[in-house]
Specification:
The protein is an alpha+beta fold. The protein has one domain. It is 15% helix and 30% strand. The chain contains 3 helices and 10 strands. An 8-stranded antiparallel β-sheet has the order 1-3-4-5-9-8-7-6, with helices on one face. A two-stranded antiparallel ribbon has the order 2-10. Strand 6 and strand 7 form a beta hairpin.
């Protein structure tokens, strides 16, 4: 799905994300709550309307296609980005003209961290049912963390061997970061290290 020259439709990507996460999820988990909000910001000067969708090797190319300022992680804890950056349409009614951008970093022992960012002001996909694990501050914005853990058949929420999700809003930009086999503090550190491309 992430191969060069190929782009999965956003619905397929969302289904893939949900499918991966839901492999460890259980119906008893509470539904994820809404992300915190922050005062609306202004669009950066020179930002063009979305021009394209596709898979891109560089952040600058992905940003030109997305039509809004992207962020990339400066701290990846030894994980490497080995696959293209995906730019697709936001799959939410009334937001199809907005763009959703996905990138992943991975390493040994099934460790990974992902970022999904869009300019719609809300989530472009639903990661499914998860357990609320607290709130954090990401560059002044309230971020909500969720985990797939703590119910029968799943690891303890204190374990490293769980899927974590952190989501927040900053003006018109919306961010969701994910991790697998990482501590909470690592996902928070990854998220706090995001900087403009």
């Amino acid at each position: 799905m992430f191969g060069n020259g190929k782009l999965a439709a956003r619905s397929t990507l969302a289904a893939g994300l949900a499918g991966l996460v839901m492999l460890t999820a259980a119906p008893a988990l509470a539904a994820a709550g809404p992300a915190g909000t922050a005062p609306a910001g202004t669009a950066p000067a020179g930002t063009a309307a979305p021009a394209a969708t596709g898979s891109f090797k560089t952040w600058s190319a992905a940003q030109r296609a997305a039509g809004f300022r992207l962020k990339t992680a400066r701290r990846t804890y030894g994980l490497k980005r080995k696959r293209p950056i995906l730019v697709s349409k936001c799959q939410v009614t009334g937001k199809l003209h907005k763009r959703d951008v996905f990138a992943e970093w991975s390493g040994s022992h099934r460790r990974y961290m992902w970022i999904d960012q869009n300019n719609s002001g809300q989530a472009c996909s639903n990661f499914g049912a998860a357990k609320p694990l607290g709130t954090y501050r990401i560059k002044g914005h309230k971020a909500h963390m969720f985990g797939f853990c703590g119910v029968k058949g799943l690891p303890s929420c204190k374990s490293r061997r769980i899927v974590l999700v952190l989501q927040w809003k900053a003006g018109r930009d919306y961010y969701v970061t994910y991790s697998g086999n990482e501590w909470r503090r690592t996902l928070v550190g990854f998220s706090r290290s995001l900087r403009r491309v």
